[in-house]
Amino acid sequence: MSARGETLLWIAQRASAAVLAVCVVVHLATIIYAVQGGLSAAEILGRTRGNAAWFAFYAVFMLAVTVHAPIGLRAVLIEWFGWRGVSRGWFLVLFTALLAWIGMRAVFAVFA
Amino acid sequence: MKVSVWKGGAGGSFQEFDVPRHSSQTVLDVVTYIQRALDPTLAYRYACRVGMCGSCAMTVNGVPRWTCRTHVDKVLRNERLQVAPLKNLPVIRDLVTDMSEFFDKWARAKGQFTGSRSKRDGFAAVSPSSEERLQIDAGIECIGCAVCYSACDVVAWNPDYLGPAALNRAWTLVRDERVTDIPDRLRSVAGDAGVHSCHTHMSCTERCPKKISPTAGIAGLKREILKSALRGDL
Prior knowledge:
The complex is a heterodimer of chains A (112) and B (234). With 112 residues, chain A is mostly helical. Chain A is 87% helix and 0% strand. The mean pLDDT of chain A is 93. Chain B has helices at 27-38, 72-75, 100-108, 131-139, 147-151, 153-157, 164-174, 182-188, 203-207, 214-231, and strands at residues 2-7, 13-18, 57-60, 63-66, 80-84, 91-93, 96-97. In chain B, the strands form 2 sheets. Chain B has a 5-stranded mixed sheet with strand order 2-1-5-3-4. The longest helix of chain B is centred in the C-terminal third of the chain and has 18 residues, at 214-231. Chain B starts with a strand and ends with a helix. The interface between A and B is medium-sized, with 14 and 15 residues.
């Protein structure tokens, strides 16, 4: 990959980290607030399902994770295993697809 | 005191010597004593003995240091000293490392000055108080000792990584208002082999004997590369 391409990956990882910082704070604050009354799983789903705003929030959260984690894993694979080249690229594509699928499946299950 | 010194190449081992203690004794004095009085085959490298040439760096008790300016008093533990070659560089023999790759990376980071003026243009007037000049001042006194390179975890993990000294050199040139080809220079230090692999552990800054902060230079290069990428110059 060119220096420009690697720089764009770095920018994408830093930008997604900024989004994640906000999402994680909102997520933690929400769950701490929500469980204070001792909500059951059924009660939580009753409140989350069909809520378009929370669906959009967690879809953005998932998108940020899907951008951020594979770029970080890419560096880990270089530094820990010296893995480069086309095979690493395909592994990361598969990892990204798996992450997006598992994440969005959860978002749809809780909020759709 | 007991001094363990690395003998041999990469597959060598430590050999122990008894060395008399003296006041104001440096680690380089210790190594020199061993070669002159105990083991004339010991290979090591030094030149100026006053912290200018950058040739006597070694790993002392696990830490990379310039040995000519490192007093034994400050590093001795339980009357023992361990002296090894610098890490992250191939060992030629005993305490001597092959520094070719270290300096080749300076060239890969475009560490040479290129200007646009000829001798007919006269001197460029650079304000000593300009922000760029002050940033250059903070990084320009590098003596090329490779202590930072030896201390860097990223160099150990990723052999292509240019390393703190080469990137610091690139930073001082990028800030130089006389220097040409800035986008090309930024391109040569961007990406996996360049500044974007730095983990900001700051081992280079911690260990630099000249108190330079290559970490600050690397952060500056990241900012300049980001601006260049956003402008579409990269």
